[in-house]
Amino acid sequence: MDTLDFQNIIKETLIEYTKIPYSYGDIEYRTVFDSENDNYCIVTLGWHGPKRIHGCLIHLEIIDGKIWVQRDDTEDGVTYDLEEAGIPKDKIVLGFHPPNVRQHTGYAVA
Q: What is the mean pLDDT of residues 13-31?
């Protein structure tokens, strides 16, 4: 698999997440794709009553031929979706874990 394959799989995976309705409030998901710099995000945006909601749900990067999961606030984990789409575990880095923990995750260390 090359970077273009990774980009396409990431985009398809994240677009599916935007189709899931938020459970409360007037909140939506939006994708932010930067293919030139290999950064891919889903942001939550909207209102829950008087409270403004704006945050990053998922942030993925392609670094040195691997997909780095920098943030994953999904219930089940975007990594399972990436694996199901054909990305091998040794090409996924759980960047939100400290380096000394990554060796115990079953995914790539870096």
A: 90
In this structure, is residue 11 part of a structural domain?
A: yes
Please state the domain count of the chain. 1
Which are the contacts of 73, defined by CB distance < 8 A and separation ≥ 6?
55, 56, 57, 58
> What mean pLDDT comes out for the span 102-108?
95
Report pTM. Answer: 0.93
The sheet that has 66-72: what strands, in order across it?
Answer: 26-34, 39-48, 51-63, 66-72, 92-93
Structure tokens at 9: 């799989």
Cα-based distances in Å from 69 to 11, 57, 91: 14, 11, 11
Determine the structural domain holding residue 59 and report its residue range.
3-102
Q: What is the pLDDT of residue 79?
A: 97
